[in-house]
Design goal:
Blueprint lengths: L2 H16 L5 H12 L2 H14 L5 H17 L3 H14 L4 H13 L3 H14 L4 H13 L3 H14 L4 H13 L3 H14 L4 H13 L3 H14 L4 H13 L3 H14 L4 H13 L3 H14 L4 H13 L3 H14 L4 H13 L3 H14 L4 H13 L3 H14 L4 H13 L3 H14 L4 H13 L3 H14 L4 H14 L2 H14 L4 H8 L23 H8 L11 E7 L2 E2 L3 E2 L2 H15 L4 E6 L3 H16 L3 E7 L2 E4 L2 E4 L12 H4 L1 E2 L2 H5 L6 E7 L5 H5 L9 E2 L12 E5 L16 H9 L7 H15 L7 E5 L11
Parallel strand pairs: 1-4, 1-5, 5-9, 9-11
Antiparallel strand pairs: 2-3, 6-7, 6-10, 7-8, 11-12
């Protein structure tokens, strides 16, 4: 018999004894007031109360207390509390009335009052083990585990065979991830009561946490065997089946749990998760609503409902639900992660990062949040931090496929194709239905010119997601590499129909000339004909410049002129347009031109260009606008920057070092041209907050470049560039002229540019280059 029943029996016997000498009918009422349930108990206690209005106050207090138990059994805690109040008014020393009222307060989620009543009960009678246990439960609900543990210890000290405190202690140890102690406590409970369903459920919970799903199911099944009406055991077993993707069994268990206890919130939440996984958001939303209706403090259900709203692009409702989840449980790691995803979708990147950090702070083993933070860094070209987070996510959860996929993307960006392929293989093994993993692996195979494997992966990516426009475009480029231009054209046109913004698909399509063959096209080249082809002969006859053959060359031009805080800088827009025109003229397949970008727009542009550079032999970035050197690091200044203080530079400007990461995927030449050494109005008005950090005149020398990377400054480090008297700066004019020289290596091009600028500026401005290139020629124009 449970301890709660023993105390009820003792109280009832006391009441019955008071009426031993009374009439038989009254004695029967006293017995029913003690032993009956629901309405029968309430009616009997009411008759006892009415018959005893002038009798012993102690008898009357017991009758009110027992009627309160009757009300509570019907779920009417308000009336129960009213009767417990009356019992306490009549007999202020009735310890069990305080105990029972405290439990009703706990059921109403008022644990402050509950703890006060349990404490009063203990003060009146320190030997009631149940009072310590109930107070422990209230402390546990408040996550005050130290006090809860102390009360459970006192309860077992009073009665070593009392099972429930062992289970309570096990729950605390489980929440602290001290699984060995938790399992020991549940085993102690089962030793004392082999039919304790709660102990089996607790032990099943530990096995589930340890991902020992078979043992978890066995324990939950034992609990159900002992008590086929134990709703919680069905719900928890459903959770395990859900994790095992055995959705049919999970759904069956959740349905049984709801049938047995329609007022329990967690089975609705679990069933909602099944519908969500099955892409039935309507039913999922309905179940999450029911879970929240039944338990308005159910943080998990708010977070899950928020995920449905987020998927529907209803970001306002999603944000509201995630905020509620965090308000209800400030340590709820998954809610911070989900809210971070919404901030990211809204391009509020600083808040997104803050939420990912909070998710990891509250649960350092949250692999998803660690992965999301890594993806944040990856999108911002901070590849070292991204790699660290992807590695950590995989260490935490070696079965988490997305982390392998994004780490594979990172390795591919760095042209470490062996590692990229290994990660994609693992991601495919873990989640064979992910269309993007197949697409990404196909890109590695295509880069190796292993077209058979590439096409196989693109085919599978498209089968899994027939609207994956990028996979269709990538398959088209693979067909182009095989010389199957009919299929290439069909795929590229279909990709552009699905997503007209796919610039690289449009470029690839434009490079497929009518009648071209495999010898004149490849996925890493333009469709320029070979030297023996008729088009090439015609170009030679016209004596017009033609690009280096068999190279894919891309460029990004950013020119910032209209600064919100400091007015217009006249030349950058003209300079950017001039350089873009020249690069197109010498045969660059893609020249992306952007002007007057905010910081967020600059970062997005760099992210988009990185994908273009990944498939290129050459990549060129030309930036014209304001820049600043701060603490030895060069920054490009967006048009929305204010830079009121030096410490704002890291936040409001864009580190030039990001360009190296953006261009890292280009296989032969990575050229950075910075025409941003102009006299800087920001520096003159900027407040210095840290004296030791210098803001230099002009730019700082760049760090040592990787092989294949070359950097050109319009003015050498420490100098300022001149705008000149015309529409274009002296540097831009010289660069535009010299880029068109045939058969001149890029290093010699910038030698000529240097001499031209020195001459026209009377040696006031000296362009300068940095970097190391391999001992081969890089011609912008080749004849």
């Amino acid at each position: 018999m449970q301890r709660r029943s023993l105390i009820a029996l003792a109280a009832g016997l006391a009441l019955a004894g008071c009426f031993a000498a009374a009439s038989t009918a009254l004695a029967d009422d006293a017995g029913a007031c003690m032993n009956a349930n629901g309405d029968e108990r309430i009616d009997a206690c009411t008759r006892v109360i009415l018959s005893n209005k002038r009798g012993s106050s102690g008898d009357l207090a017991w009758a009110y207390r027992n009627r309160g138990l009757g009300w509570r059994s019907k779920g009417d805690d308000d009336r129960a509390i009213a009767d417990f109040n009356e019992a306490i008014r009549i007999d202020p020393k009735l310890a069990l009335a305080y105990l029972n009222r405290g439990w009703s307060w706990h059921l109403k989620h008022d644990d402050d009052r509950a703890i006060a009543d349990f404490t009063a009960s203990i003060k009146l009678d320190p030997k009631i083990a149940l009072a310590y246990e109930d107070r422990a439960i209230a402390y546990y609900t408040r996550k005050d585990y130290d006090r809860a543990l102390s009360d459970y210890n006192d309860a077992t000290g009073l009665d070593p065979n009392y099972v429930d405190p062992y289970i309570g202690r096990g729950n605390i140890y489980r929440n602290r991830r001290d699984y060995d102690r938790a399992m020991s406590e549940y085993n102690e409970a089962l030793k004392r009561n082999p039919n304790s369903t709660a102990a089996y459920v607790g032990r099943g919970n530990v096995s589930h946490d340890r991902k020992d799903n078979d043992r978890a199911i066995a324990d939950y099944s034992d609990a159900i065997r002992i008590d086929p009406k134990y709703a919680l055991a069905y719900a928890n077993r459903g959770n395990v089946y859900s994790d095992k993707k055995d959705f049919d069994r999970a759904l069956s268990d959740y349905n049984d749990a709801i049938r047995l206890d329609p007022n329990a919130a967690s089975p609705y939440n679990g069933r909602g998760n099944i519908y969500y996984a099955r892409k039935d958001p309507g039913r999922a939303l309905s179940d999450y609503n029911d879970a929240i209706r039944l338990d308005p403090n159910y943080a998990i259900a708010y977070r899950n409902r928020g995920n449905v709203y987020r998927d529907r692009q209803d970001l306002d409702h999603a944000m509201s639900d995630f905020n509620d989840a965090i308000r209800l449980d400030p340590q709820y790691s998954a809610a911070y992660n989900s809210r971070g995803i919404v901030y990211y979708a809204r391009k509020d990147f600083d808040r997104a990062l803050a939420d990912y950090n909070d998710a990891i702070r509250t649960d350092p083993r949250n692999a998803v949040a660690t992965y999301n933070r890594g993806s944040y860094y990856f999108d911002r070209q901070d590849l070292d931090r991204a790699l660290a987070d992807f590695n950590e996510a995989i260490r935490i959860d070696p079965q988490y496929a997305p982390a392998y996929n994004n780490r594979g993307r990172l390795y591919a960006r760095r042209k470490d194709n062996d590692r990229a392929l290994a990660d994609y293989n693992e991601a495919v093994r873990l989640d064979p239905r992910d269309s993007w993993v197949r697409n990404n692996r196909g890109l590695v195979y295509r880069d190796r010119q292993d077209y058979a494997h590439a096409l196989s992966d693109f085919d599978e990516a498209i089968r899994l997601d027939p609207k994956n426009a990028k996979a269709i475009a990538n398959r088209g480029i693979a067909y182009q590499g095989q010389g199957d231009n009919d299929r290439a054209v069909a795929d590229l046109n279909e990709a552009l129909r699905l997503d007209p913004t796919l610039g690289y698909a449009r470029t690839a399509l434009a490079n497929i000339k009518p009648g071209s063959t495999a010898s004149s096209t490849s996925p890493s080249s333009t469709s320029q004909p070979s030297a023996s082809g008729p088009a090439s002969s015609q170009a030679a006859a016209n004596n017009s410049p033609s690009p280096s053959p068999s190279l894919r060359r891309v460029a990004l031009i950013i020119s910032n002129s209209n600064y919100a805080a400091y007015g217009v800088l006249p030349n950058p827009k003209h300079d950017g347009d001039l350089i873009a025109s020249v690069l197109r003229g010498v045969g660059f397949q893609s020249v992306v031109v952007k002007s007057d970008l905010t910081r967020d727009q600059m970062l997005k542009t760099l992210q988009e260009f990185a994908a273009l550079a990944d498939n290129a032999d050459w990549s060129v970035v030309y930036y014209s606008g304001h820049g600043v050197a701060y603490n030895g690091v060069n920054y490009m200044i967006p048009v929305d920057a204010k830079l009121a203080a030096d410490r704002d530079i890291d936040i409001e400007a864009v580190d030039v070092g990001k360009l190296s990461s953006v261009m890292a995927g280009s296989s032969k030449l990575r050229l950075i041209v910075l025409d941003m050494c102009r006299s800087n109005p920001f520096v003159k008005q900027m407040r210095r907050t840290i004296a030791s950090r210098g803001i230099g005149r002009g730019l700082a020398p760049p760090p040592e470049d990787d092989a294949g990377e070359y950097t050109a400054f319009a003015a050498r480090d420490g100098q300022e560039a001149l705008d000149g008297d015309g529409n274009n700066s002296p540097f831009a004019e010289a660069l535009a002229k010299r880029l068109q020289m045939p058969n001149v290596d890029v290093r010699r091009v910038f030698d000529y540019v240097r001499d031209d600028v020195l001459k026209v500026t009377n040696r006031q401005q000296q362009p300068f280059t940095y970097g190391s290139l391999p001992p081969v020629d890089f011609f912008f124009v080749q004849r």
